[in-house]
Amino acid sequence: MKKLMVGMALTATLATAVTPGFGSIGGNQGKAYAATVTYKVTASKLNVRSGAGTTYGIIGSVAKGQTLSVMSKSGSWYKINYNGRTGYVSSDYVQASGTTTPPAESTTYTVTASTLNVRSGAGTNYASIGSVTKGQKLSVVSKSGSWYKINYNGRTGYVSSDYVQVSATTSPKLVVDSFKTLGNAQQVILVTADNYDTKSAKIQTFEKADGKWKQVLIANGVLGQKGFALSKKEGDMESPTGKYTIGTAFGRYANPGTKLPYRKITANDVWVDDSKSSLYNTWQQKPANGRWTSAENMDIPAYDYGFVINYNESRTPGKGSAIFFHVGTNYTAGCTATSKEQVVSILKWLNPEKNPVIIQSPVSELDKY
Predict the structure, then answer these.
(1) Are the beta carbons of 273 and 281 closer than 8 angstroms?
(2) Contact, 275 vs 290, CB < 8 A?
């Protein structure tokens, strides 16, 4: 089968919450945001090392089902907070499958008074613990009535909002803002990987409204077992790179609410992968009656929900067939996959009137688009 997930089952669930902190007085400050990711690991016991590699010493271990505080990823290693220390775990045994929420817009707060008292509480009856000067940038934590709660030299302080101005609100630059090949597309699914050889992918969705791109979703996904293909071939276990339009949505159940044309899979549905057949790279129904010698069964759990990526529309023999976006959390044989929850969410979001496209690429080659 082209896309049926294979390999070791992932058995443990870990959750991560990330909230960027606020810096000290004087820096440009952004609003905090929450992000939640569900991780699944294959090992019942996973070593935590002092560095990103097996040559580093073991400083402890995490057990199946334990919650990890993931800080970042370095190559094939996750940097984590382990009992107050920095540790590293192999990403081969940690599989992220959830969603993160994009950061909110960044806001800068500036002092307008020549000198502004910083008080210990939200009111003039509280003692002054210091002061800030005109033009200084503030690390605002929250607002209480007419007072801003701030981080002041490592302490909590309060300043009157009458003398603090929101001086700039800027949206972070999105990767799609630099793309030149989107044409009239107003929805983009972006699938990226660190390099050609990794099976782990980052899935992002973007939508354009009133001439401005907004990020809608970030999720973790997987590619073919051998990663991205430099030149896709039938059976190579690699996912094609490039920009493609979105085809028919499908599933083994009723339409989950997508606006795309939807086809419910039956027990007789197959996708022909026989390069010598005139029906190569098309959706057909059994029996074959000599029309093909090889075809992929569509009635499988990986295709509970998904959509066709319009790859090899010319149906060039041997160039690859049955390229889908579907359900899966381990790896595929050439498709792109993510959790069922995310597949359904993306299906509901996609709107053919907005000319959606999917772009698949290593991060280093995004300048092609």
Answers:
(1) yes
(2) no
Q: Give the separation between CA 227 and CA 171, rounded to whole angstroms.
A: 32
Cα–Cα distance, 49 to 32 (Å, whole number) = 30
pLDDT interval class at 340 (50, 70, 90): very high
Cα Rg of the chain, angstroms: 25
Instruction: Judge whether 176 and 182 are in contact, CB under 8 Å.
Output: yes
Q: For residue 336, which of 319, 318, 360, 313 has the smallest C-alpha distance?
A: 360
Element (DSSP H or E) covering residue 348: helix 340-349
pLDDT at 38 over 70: no
pLDDT at site 17: 32
Question: How far is Cα 60 from Cα 289, in angstroms, rounded to an integer?
Answer: 60
pTM: 0.61
What are the tokens at 146?
A: 């007419």
Residues 76-94 as b/e (b if ≥16 CB within 10 A, e otherwise) read ebbbbebeeeebbbbbebb
- Check: CB of residue 79 under 8 Å from CB of residue 51: no
Contacts of 46 (CB under 8 A, 6+ apart): 61, 62, 63, 89, 90, 93, 94
Q: How confident is the model at residue 283 (pLDDT cuts 50, 70, 90)?
A: very high
Averaged pLDDT, 252-261: 97
Residue 147 CB contacts under 8 Å (≥ 6 apart), including other chains: 122, 123, 158, 159, 160, 161
Provide the pLDDT for residue 168: 58
What is the DSSP secondary structure assignment for residue 30, as one 8-state letter? B
Residues 246, 310: contact at Cβ < 8 Å?
Answer: yes
SS3 assignment for 209-238: ECCEEEEEEEEEEECECCCEECCCCCCCCC
Tokens of 58: 């073991």
Rounded distance between C-alpha atoms, residue 225 and residue 235, angstroms: 11
pLDDT digits (tens, 9 = 90+) for 140-186: 888 888 899 888 887 889 999 999 887 655 566 899 999 999 999 99
Q: Record the tokens describing residue 316, joined without a space.
A: 């060039």
Q: Residues 358, 247: contact at Cβ < 8 Å?
A: no
